[in-house]
Amino acid sequence: MEVPQGELEQLQAANKSFKKIIDSLENFKGQYFCENVEQTSKLLDVWTGIMAQTTLNYNISSTPEWMGGSSDKDRLRRLIEEEEERKRQEEEARVIQLELERQRIEREQIEAEQKRIALEKAKPPSHPSLAGRGRGRGRILRGRASSSTSSRTTTGARGRTSTLHIRKK
């Protein structure tokens, strides 16, 4: 029995189509399986978290020292207040430290200024007219003859030195 060539080609084309459909179904089945595995893994993670929290809650509630949720809230509130007080005290100490440092610097500046002024007063004047050398501004008294003269040096305003010649009678 011989199959005509046209029928053979039709059967081969149908066979290829069925093969593609089967491959697609297997591929879809693989994807569906992977999605199911991912969802199952996520559910197991959630369940593990629930069990861990349940165990923790059981252990806390079965501890004789545990006074309940309101006690925990009070304890947490006290801890927060203590932390705020500690921070406030640290800030006050920092402000006091800064003020002390500012006062110390101010004292040092005042002392340095006082030393500078004392050094300026102690050193001789550098300007020749203030040094008391050279021509003086003294007065010579005239008119009466006298055998002896005396001189007296005085220091006036602004550190000027003058010499007075006085004739004795």
TrEMBL record:
<dbReference type="Pfam" id="PF08651">
    <property type="entry name" value="DASH_Duo1"/>
</dbReference>
<keyword id="KW-0498">Mitosis</keyword>
<keyword id="KW-0132">Cell division</keyword>
<keyword id="KW-0137">Centromere</keyword>
<keyword id="KW-0175">Coiled coil</keyword>
<dbReference type="GO" id="GO:0005874">
    <property type="term" value="C:microtubule"/>
</dbReference>
<dbReference type="InterPro" id="IPR013960">
    <property type="entry name" value="DASH_Duo1"/>
</dbReference>
<feature type="region of interest" description="Disordered">
    <location>
        <begin position="116"/>
        <end position="169"/>
    </location>
</feature>
<dbReference type="GO" id="GO:0051301">
    <property type="term" value="P:cell division"/>
</dbReference>
<dbReference type="GO" id="GO:0007059">
    <property type="term" value="P:chromosome segregation"/>
</dbReference>
<keyword id="KW-0963">Cytoplasm</keyword>
<feature type="compositionally biased region" description="Low complexity">
    <location>
        <begin position="143"/>
        <end position="163"/>
    </location>
</feature>
<keyword id="KW-0995">Kinetochore</keyword>
<keyword id="KW-0539">Nucleus</keyword>
<protein>
    <recommendedName>
        <fullName>DASH complex subunit DUO1</fullName>
    </recommendedName>
</protein>
<dbReference type="GO" id="GO:0042729">
    <property type="term" value="C:DASH complex"/>
</dbReference>
<comment type="similarity">
    <text>Belongs to the DASH complex DUO1 family.</text>
</comment>
<dbReference type="GO" id="GO:0000278">
    <property type="term" value="P:mitotic cell cycle"/>
</dbReference>
<dbReference type="GO" id="GO:0072686">
    <property type="term" value="C:mitotic spindle"/>
</dbReference>
<keyword id="KW-0493">Microtubule</keyword>
<keyword id="KW-0206">Cytoskeleton</keyword>
<keyword id="KW-0131">Cell cycle</keyword>
<keyword id="KW-0158">Chromosome</keyword>
<keyword id="KW-0159">Chromosome partition</keyword>
